[in-house]
């Protein structure tokens, strides 16, 4: 009798671990990254000064992944994030020559319009989201180069006084709470996950799929505009290299956090937080360890492949032709 009970308990534990493996791995990965780099850097990771640095590296990723998760939950993607941020920063910097009060509204408006355009291309023209948004990224970065012919567009120096850790923490928390509520408890968030699971079923059930897709891209655009504003007040200027590789870092962050590329009901909002912190911890830890930039990219790539191999749900992927 006791043997049967033990077998039942062991079987139950194994079943629970198997069912929650995709949730456990990202958390264990984050812990491993923090502990490992704290050890090899001589305890520099868990210091107050480094926590500030780590948060600054994670901030932009947190904001964009809070929004990008709505797109990825549908099995779609947005590879134009860096281009949207760069264009929003460039136009907002130009607007600052008229009035500093225009910087935030212009950045948000540009992000919103870019998101709307992405939604139009993906939903109305039915172009694959990955291809469409990569093309949009090239177009937007081309416009940035035209706008910034001198290479840099500065903002008034006094605006850099707005860059404070307290403000960023407040924005990250508030924006995160709003995004979490939208994703977890509203019909918009539920429909995003449902579309990723069963697109045709959603259409037949009366879900306004196009409207949901428009909304997710607009929200991602607004998040990009917000990131552009904070980039400006931190660096003091917009340049051609603004937000370089942001879209790839955001994609990696969400997938390291456990988000499947196919989206669906299994997508959890916490993946945005865990993945963003993991990506920031990787970059920060390797810098503290003295790893060169090119080597950092190689290491990130290998870690990314390993995590995807462990968490990727192959059964849900359609055959690619």
Your description of this structure?
- This protein is mainly alpha-helical and 321 residues long.
- It is 73% helix and 2% strand.
- The chain is built from 13 helices and 2 strands; from the N terminus they run ααααααβααααβααα.
- The chain has a two-stranded antiparallel ribbon with strand order 1-2.
Briefly characterize the structure:
The protein is mainly alpha-helical and 321 residues long. The protein has 13 helices and two strands. A two-stranded antiparallel ribbon has the order 1-2.
Descriptive terms for the model:
mainly alpha; single chain; two-stranded antiparallel ribbon; 73% helix; 13 helices; 2 strands; 321 residues
Helix and strand arrangement:
Layout: H1 2-19, H2 21-40, H3 48-72, H4 81-95, H5 103-123, H6 129-147, E1 152-154, H7 165-185, H8 187-197, H9 199-204, H10 209-235, E2 237-239, H11 246-256, H12 270-289, H13 293-311
Antiparallel strand pairs: 1-2
Helix pairs in contact: 2-12, 3-7, 3-10, 3-11, 3-12, 4-5, 4-6, 4-10, 5-10, 7-8, 8-10, 11-12
Series of secondary-structure elements, N-terminal to C-terminal: HHHHHHEHHHHEHHH
Helix content: over 70%
Outline the biggest β-sheet. Answer: 2 strands, antiparallel
C-alpha end-to-end distance: 54 Å
Number of strands: 2
Return the average pLDDT rounded to an integer.
89
Based on secondary structure, the structural category is mainly alpha
